[in-house]
Design a protein that fits this description.
By secondary structure, this protein is mainly α. It is built from 4 helices and no strands.
Length: about 160
């Protein structure tokens, strides 16, 4: 059971920590120190790995919590619900919203400097805003999850 608790805590901390690091440290530093177009390309190359980490961590964290619940004969409904929502939002963000953003960026690169490009840029801004809201939601839910988990820790 101790190994399962370790896996659960590792999943939460890696996931939420990577969300905070990427969102509040890495991305702003990249955009501050590189030209905007280059920064966008760098972050675009990081996103697939960022989401892959989120997919893996979310499945591991939720799976380990369900296993622990079964072993301890308890049902932490709120924590399971939070993890399920975080998992769903993470997969939606990466597989749907992220794919949409990549497709729009590819269209922008191939389009001529026309009104169509401005429409595409406007569309990208809306998709980016949605992505940011989803990301912030997962961070906030994750921090709340860490709080709930910490209440059960015995040091």
């Amino acid at each position: 059971m101790h190994i399962l608790r370790f896996i659960h805590l590792l999943g939460i901390t890696v996931w939420v920590g990577s969300l905070i690091f990427f969102t509040l440290i890495a991305t702003p530093v990249i955009f501050k120190n590189l030209p905007r177009e280059t920064a966008g390309e760098v972050v675009g190359h990081l996103f697939p790995k960022y989401w892959l980490l989120g997919y893996a961590a979310s499945v591991i964290t939720l799976g380990s919590l369900i296993a622990l619940s079964y072993m301890q004969k308890s049902f932490p409904a709120l924590r399971i619900l939070l993890l399920a929502v975080m998992l769903g939002v993470t997969f939606y963000s990466g597989l749907v919203v992220g794919k949409n953003a990549r497709n729009i960026k590819a269209e922008i690169k191939t389009a001529e400097e026309t009104v169509n490009t401005e429409d595409l840029r406007s569309k990208f801004k809306r998709v980016h805003a949605l992505s940011a809201v989803l990301n912030l939601s997962v961070i906030l839910l994750g921090l709340f999850l860490v709080y709930l988990t910490s209440r059960e820790l015995q040091l």
